[in-house]
Design goal:
Length: 285
């Protein structure tokens, strides 16, 4: 076991015990049932570094248009967060299969390290064996958006990446609370590669997949991942992208508090315009 892997594993365990003690728990039956009520569910066990990343696949058709990979926010429900139905149902209604997975150390996935983006990468690589000639959508929500975006290099051509309620880095996110601020100040001084990989702006500066459509969805009333920080991060992309601001939505609540514009945004991601960048600022289109 190398030093970075060892540090990541034990820090992951410590962080869960001290800050998020309720995240590594067995899913409640009502969470599982909420997913099962949406469509046909298949359990997936994705291998990563000899460990298991747990996932569920939800489908309604035997001939899907493609597959959507959902990365969850920080939540004790982990992948079952998406049992809220709105995001999964949107894609199922358009003929996609949907796969929601637990980042390592969350839900039913094994603890591995701090390189959560490798969990998303492992899921994408696993699914390419089944959906090699299909369209891929990688959709991360809050914490999930930090980490799914680095898996873009493994996506097939003409895929879609949806980044919802994303801050500039995990550092920016954690600094908002007093109980994590001090430890973040300490970690910032350490040359830990796994943390450096969480810098969204640095990832965007080197983004080299012009064939991929990028949809960024921010919420104006979001106090956890502020819209201005997300817009700043997106500005470092040197390719066509879409930025949508939901003026009446709070953190994670876009599908409910501004359903029409949220769904319009996802439709735009699946059917992008050919020649222009779309910015929806304070007014609905």
């Amino acid at each position: 076991m190398n030093r970075d892997f060892s540090f990541g594993y034990y820090f992951n365990v410590l962080a869960q015990m001290v800050f998020f003690p309720n995240l590594k728990i067995k899913p409640k039956q009502k969470w599982v049932k909420a997913i099962e009520d949406i469509g046909q569910v298949h359990r997936l066990r994705v291998q990563r570094d000899g460990k298991v990343v747990s996932a569920v696949k939800i489908s309604r058709t035997s001939e899907p248009q493609g597959v959507v990979v959902l990365g969850h926010p920080i939540s004790k429900k982990a992948k079952f967060f998406f049992g809220e139905k709105s995001r999964i149902s949107f894609y199922l209604e358009r003929g996609f299969d949907v796969v929601a997975f637990d980042f390592n150390g969350f839900g039913e996935s094994d603890r591995i390290d701090l390189r959560y983006w490798k969990d998303a990468q492992a899921v994408v690589q696993h699914l390419r064996q089944e959906y090699n000639n299909h369209r891929f959508v990688l959709h991360g929500v809050s914490f999930g958006s930090f980490h799914v975006l680095r898996a873009y290099k493994d996506l097939p051509k003409n895929s879609v990446v949806v980044l919802e309620n994303m801050s500039r880095s995990l550092y920016d996110y954690w600094k908002r609370w007093l109980h994590t601020r001090l430890i973040i100040r300490f970690l910032e001084k350490l040359p830990i590669q796994a943390f450096q990989e969480m810098e969204v702006i640095e990832q965007f500066k080197t983004w080299d997949r012009p064939d991929i459509t990028i949809m960024a969805i921010a919420s104006e009333k979001d106090i956890y991942t502020p819209a201005d920080e997300m817009k700043d991060a997106i500005s470092y992309l040197r390719q066509r992208n879409h930025f949508v601001l939901l003026p009446n939505a709070t953190h994670l609540q876009g599908p409910y508090e501004q359903s029409d514009l949220y769904r319009l945004s996802l439709n735009r991601a699946l059917n992008p315009s050919q020649n222009k960048i779309m910015f929806y600022e304070s007014a609905q289109p």
